[in-house]
Write a structure and sequence with these properties.
disordered C terminus, alpha/beta, six-stranded parallel sheet, Rossmann fold, seven-stranded parallel sheet, Glycosyltransferase, elongated, 3 domains
């Protein structure tokens, strides 16, 4: 899995231990399972607090929500948004959230900027209108709904009208325990030599435990060694309202029936490790619940997965898990049936053990490690599909493009008295990565394009250009006859020689300054650096170094066309590009290499410009053919601009990567298209420039603005599900350069086009 497709952070909303409830245990166990299987991803929890003092939560808990405070839900959404979460997994029960039927949770989901996967722990067969509305609104706000049973799928589809493609079925997870003989654990609980019947979970009247106790006299008569153990504390909400009255009623009932010596209570909330030992000691597990309306039972899943023989009433989850003789179903409120089924299993060791084995084998598909992988796959799917929930309409390229006003706020923020910072942490310069000549060259190129455009910003451009030119001059290593590239924040060069691409890009910026009618900085200094740098350019082997050098030479030759040395170098490098194209281009692959990677349109543009300048039709035709082919390749659904993604590029014979999309690709397409428009006079190339520029403004796969109009910055890229919110120099300058070229083209526009840029 590539870094860009890696799920980095997932947040869970629900309950969490030490709060005592099944949902809290589920969330804890799911997060633990995910962290074990996927250690490179950060999983954390936002629990609901039902008491003012909250709970003493373990480290996975990051942010607490008071269930009855609406403001907490809104602040939690803001917390999730600013922490760059890839997906949210909501654990839903109507009763744990504030508002009528728990509707406060919808306010939280409304504010989120990432996909939501909702696990439904309760799905009602006969909901009231408010409950139905809430579940349907959950579905609208979720990329997937997870249910733990087939009944859940049927209910969501048939009762709530939810498209089945939006529903995923993932079993309730279980702990992967060995298949052991019950006698192994019995001595720990004082029941060695006895047949142990077990029920565990929080006690409440709906559990129907009184009917299991009513069955005890008949069971004990046939099996005097039988003992029934009930493990678990009274549900906190029941205890707060009624104290221990339910448990006390069970004790009184056992005394009345003369089976008090066969009833044991473990009146506490049992942690997982000990709980699995209790289950391991059981011969038969009982779930005598009173109603079919239970879509999920974690206690039943645990017992099944441990290979227990189960006697249960036929609530929905039990009907599925105990099918195919994995357990025995008996009627609701029927102690005689419970007794008959239990005695039958105690009488027949072969039958009981066969049932145990079937249950254990079935449970292997439910262990937490498997469930964790299924959830992780769902997080990936949800993230990749999220763009479709963000926008219900197809994004179209603009028919008319309104160019925003030039905003240099972020460019100034990124620039200090040394030069321009490479990277930003969101909108703040990142000093850890210092500076590079690549970005200072881009910044100088931007200044050269816009100088003379606006008298109000012209002095600022001159000031900034001086700063960037100073950096470039300082980067020249006269001993190596090459430019350095990377500099730390404390102004230490991190290398003696930079990359060939950075050297060639610097030549391009210097050539643009020298070829311009506007005088920026010291032209003599620029000329000296430009001429010195040409010697190295002749030795470069990288095609992209050739193309940047060609662009620098071509810009320089606009003013100094008589310079034979520069013209010769331009022609030499263009010839190399032409040879590369001839070697690799075919009828269906009109490109210079077997892989389309970065700054792609520039390669076609460099050969096209060289062909026109040198009056070489072969170069011009090849450059234009390559640009046409690339433009077609980079056209997405509805005609939007879709650049080659950096997460895999586009290898000949393979699938092109769609993400991660980089701003520099949109800029190079704008620039190359405008060059083709100027050279050929074909108005459709102006339209192509508009289409590519629209990518910055929202005409892209996600339908989101990559450009930040508030500060004039540009986000660092477009992932499959979200923006990269950092606004570094390369991205910001890609936008500003594209905008500058569109502004200049708007001024030049003489003939009408289907798409016209309007300068505001």
């Amino acid at each position: 899995m590539s870094h860009s497709s890696q799920i980095r952070q997932v947040a869970f909303i629900g309950n969490h231990l030490p709060r005592k409830c099944g949902l809290a245990t589920f969330t804890h166990d799911l997060v633990a399972g995910l962290q074990t299987k996927h250690p490179k991803t950060n999983f954390w929890v936002l629990p609901m607090n039902d008491q003012p003092e909250g709970y003493d939560y373990p480290p996975p808990v990051r942010f607490e929500i008071r269930d009855n405070k609406l403001i907490d839900y809104k602040r939690a959404a803001d917390f999730l948004n600013i922490n760059d979460v890839d997906a949210v997994c909501l654990q839903h029960e109507y009763g744990i959230f504030g508002g009528e039927y728990g509707k406060y949770i919808l306010d939280l989901l409304d504010e989120l900027k990432m996909p939501v996967i909702t696990t439904l722990h309760t799905i009602l067969k006969d909901p009231c209108s408010e409950q139905r509305d809430i579940l349907n609104e959950l579905a609208d706000r979720s990329i997937r709904l997870v249910t733990m049973s087939q009944h859940g799928i049927d209910f969501l589809r048939d009762i709530y009208g939810i498209d089945q493609s939006k529903i995923a079925m993932i079993h309730h997870g279980i702990h992967d325990v060995p298949f052991v003989d019950p006698s192994y654990y019995k001595d720990q609980y004082g029941v060695e030599g006895r047949k142990l019947l077990l029920t565990f979970g929080l006690l409440s009247p709906g559990k129907g435990l009184e009917y299991a106790i009513k069955a005890l006299p008949a069971i004990v008569k046939e099996h005097p060694e039988a003992v029934y153990m009930i493990v678990g504390a009274t549900h906190p909400h029941v205890k707060a309202h009624s104290g221990e009255s339910y448990r006390e009623s069970l004790v009184s009932l056992a005394e009345e029936l003369g089976v008090a010596d066969h009833l044991m209570f473990q009146n506490r909330f049992v942690e997982t490790e000990e709980l699995m030992q209790y289950i391991g000691a059981a011969d038969i597990y009982l779930t005598p619940y009173l109603s079919e309306a239970q879509i999920t039972s974690g206690t039943l899943a645990y017992a099944l997965g441990a290979g227990k023989a189960v006697v249960s009433t036929p609530y929905w989850h039990a009907q599925e898990l105990l099918d195919e003789e994995r357990g025995v179903l008996v009627g609701f409120k029927d102690p005689d049936a419970i007794a008959t089924a239990t005695i039958d299993l105690l009488d027949d060791d072969v039958k009981r053990n066969t049932m145990r084995k079937k249950a254990y084998q079935y449970g292997r598909s439910m262990v937490w490690s498997t469930v964790a992988d299924q959830y992780m796959e769902l997080f990936h799917t949800g993230r990749n599909e999220y763009r479709y929930i963000k926008s219900s309409h197809k994004v179209q390229p603009p028919d008319r493009l309104i160019l925003p006003d030039i905003n240099l706020t972020h460019l100034k923020t990124l620039s200090d008295d040394t030069g321009i910072f490479q990277h930003a942490i969101y909108t703040i310069p990142d000093a850890n990565h210092g500076y590079c000549i690549d970005d200072n060259a881009r910044a100088l190129l931007f200044c050269s394009i816009l100088t003379g455009h606006d008298p109000e910003i012209d002095p600022l451009l001159h000031q900034l250009a001086d700063r960037y030119q100073t950096f470039i001059h300082y980067a020249w290593n006269d001993g190596k006859k090459r430019f350095r590239n990377f500099m730390s924040y404390d102004r230490r060069w991190l290398e003696e020689v930079g990359s060939t691409d950075s050297h060639a890009r610097t030549l391009w910026a210097l050539g643009a300054i020298l070829g311009s009618d506007h005088h920026l900085g010291d032209r003599t200094l620029c000329s000296n650096l430009f001429i010195k740098g040409l010697d190295a350019a002749e030795t470069f082997n990288s095609p992209r170094s050739w193309m940047f050098s060609i662009l620098g030479c071509s810009a320089y030759l606009k003013r100094y066309g008589g310079d034979r040395r520069v013209r010769k170098l331009r022609d030499e490098l263009a010839g190399r590009l032409m040879s590369l194209y001839s070697e690799n281009a075919t009828s269906d692959w009109k490109w210079f290499e077997n892989t389309v990677t970065y700054s792609n349109a520039r390669m076609a543009e460099a050969l096209l410009i060289s062909g026109y300048d040198a009056q070489n039709n072969q170069w011009a035709d090849a450059g234009l053919a390559a640009l046409k082919w690339l433009t077609k390749v980079q056209t997405g659904k509805g005609g939007i601009f879709r650049p080659i993604g950096s997460d895999g590029w586009y290898v000949k014979g393979g699938k092109r990567a769609i993400f991660d999309q980089q701003p520099v690709e949109a800029y190079t397409q704008v620039s190359a298209s405008l060059s083709a428009w100027r050279l050929t006079g074909d108005a459709r190339w102006y339209d192509e420039a508009v289409r590519a520029f629209g990518w910055f403004l929202g005409a892209n796969d996600l339908g989101v603005e990559v450009y930040d109009p508030e500060i004039g910055g540009c986000r660092d890229g477009l992932h499959a599900d979200r923006l990269n919110e950092n606004q570094g120099a390369e991205s910001t300058l890609a936008y500003l350069l594209a905008q500058a070229e569109m502004i200049m083209a708007s001024k030049e526009l003489k003939c009408p086009s289907k798409t016209q840029a309007i300068l505001v």
